[in-house]
Amino acid sequence: MARLILLNKPYGILSQFSGACTSKTLAAYIPHPSFYPAGRLDKDSEGLLVLTDDGQLQQRISNPRFGKKKIYLAQVEGEIDASALAKLRQGVSLKDGCSLPAMARVVEEPRLWPRDPPVRYRKHIPTSWIEIKLSEGRNRQVRRMTAAVGYPTLRLVRIAVDRWRLGSLEPGQWQLIEV
Predict the structure, then answer these.
(1) Is pLDDT above 90 for 149?
(2) CA geometry: angle at 87 spanning 84 and 90, to 5°?
(3) Do β-strands 174-178 and 127-134 pair in parallel, antiparallel, or remain unpaired?
């Protein structure tokens, strides 16, 4: 039976167990070095990171050919409009090719933990929140997609990978499950 760790990865943490001494890694949170991330979240992103001790399961979760959905909440600069959402739903042209269509919709500001450091507040520039669902896993994809439609991402939180949800885990908390 395979085991998974569901971790709420804090902002500023690398999605690996070792790295440059100036960056915090998963080793600061997970006492199980036999687990490996099934996909990544960049250092500037937060939320659900799935780790497993089963190499085949890691492949099935992280390889885009298996089409596992990932759901993100993105705070974007500006009040996103219907045209930008339509472009996200059609697929966006990126430097490494066109993205697959994503499900994207505006959502109310979610109840999340405060980010440390906080997102820079600018009095005269509004922000909005979107939920975006992808089945790809390109490097910094959500950030590149929102920027391509004119709404740079300020904060990015992954809330689901396939059937696993972030739930009530606080930053740095994790849960071990068997699958």
Answers:
(1) yes
(2) 155
(3) unpaired
pLDDT of residue 123: 78
Structure confidence by residue, pLDDT tens digits, 101-112? 999 999 999 999
Judge whether residue 20 has pLDDT over 80: no
Q: Given its phi and psi angles, is residue 96 left (phi above 0), alpha (psi -120 to 50 degrees) or beta?
A: alpha
* CA pair distance 102, 88, nearest whole angstrom: 6
Which residues does 106 contact at the CB level (< 8 Å), separation at least 6?
Answer: 80, 85, 128, 129, 130
**Catalytic amino acids?**
42
Q: What is the pLDDT of residues 119-128, one digit of tens each?
A: 887 778 899 9
Distance of CA 149 to the CA centre of its chain: 19
Rounding to the nearest 10 degrees, give the CA dihedral for residues 71, 7, 108, 64: -10
Token pair of 66 as six digits:
């298996």
Whole-model pTM over 0.85: yes
Cα torsion 38, 41, 42, 47: sign: negative
Instruction: Give the contacts of 20 (CB within 8 A, at least 6 positions apart).
Output: none
